[in-house]
Amino acid sequence: MKSPIALQQDLQNGAINARLQSLCGLDGTELEEKRQRLLHLIQAYSEKFGTDGEVSLFSSPGRTEMGGNHTDHQHGCVLAGPVNLDMMACAGANGTMIAVIHSAGYPAIEVDLSVLTPQEDELGSSAALVRGIASRLHDMGYQIGGFNACVDSTVLGGSGLSSSAAYEVLIGIIMNHLFCEDAIDAVAIAQIGQYAENKFFGKPCGLMDQLACAVGGIISIDFNDPAVPIVNKINYDLRSSGHVLCIIDSGADHADLTDEYAAVSSEMKAVAAYFGKQVLREVDEKEFWSNLAEVRKQAGDRAVLRAMHFFSDNQLALKEARALEQDDFQYFLSLVDQSGRSSAMLLQNLFCTARPQEQAVPLTIALAQHLLGGEGAVRVHGGGFAGTIQAYVPVSMKDAFRAGMEAVLGEGCCHFLGIRLEGGVVIA
Question: What positions does the domain GHMP kinase N-terminal occupy (predicted)?
């Protein structure tokens, strides 16, 4: 930790450039953009909180789900990775129990961390996440305290890149560094974030988003025991595939879909309950198919279809990981397409059932498939119902693909991203 002025000097003279390079996911051209963002954060921190005391710089990335759509909350398998869009912060302890956070583009928040129980008026807010993380750290026996922070994000809310998980990991690594001597590992940081989102923010979620933001690199995750998830790093560089990863914004708002997400989990669990189990990972797939008629009567058609998706996509996620490990990218693309079809037909998370006339995600998928003409692969991205889709686009088609998508969806809808090698980190 250093004074804001000292960190500013380090950034200006290039002393942190090598560190920033590891947070770039494409060709390194975004290094200067990240350096400028940090300089602006230090300036903002100095203006709001002064230059006395020591601060550190932090980064937490957004994530892309590459395989396993809505499998994590059923203790299944996923494939995911952090992207080169991130949340950055300049933060320092303030000697009180108040967390004061200024996030660019949002109202400042102040959270009294002497109160560590969920507050009803904070449901769905950033303050709830901060309080929840502090509460969990306290329960785990760690010291907590107040801090000042300025935050800047290129992970847009509702982008399908999991801005909430990126924020949770950011707050987790800030408190871990300022008060816990960096004693908490990336998996535990992710679990703390999930706890805050479930218990304080009020949104049921699995652990995939937080782990993908926290750990770094392409990872295969098995949640069979969610308390001790098995995380394997996949040694594969997407840049060698001849394709680029593109996240396309459908234009449909990804916010306020908690009920839709909750229904996916509850319906899958209703099928598991027929067999006396808590989640679908505990159910034998052969028994499921053997008892299909009775399960359908008890749980309903959509729940049964969503269970079918789980069994299919859980295996696809494992196959996708093996395909990348074996450098078989064409097979990987065929698996991605299979996963996309399963989400559309079985999981049914492409549009909000309350607004069936709004079909932005299916339209965006259909347009992307038309433009690719059988090349690459396309699938819904993340939680679904609105938000974004994911496409793997041949490098030779990148410009034409972007032009075709933007002609219908508007300029800036395509985000060509890289997978960065690090998750949530202390930069300096």
Answer: 129-217
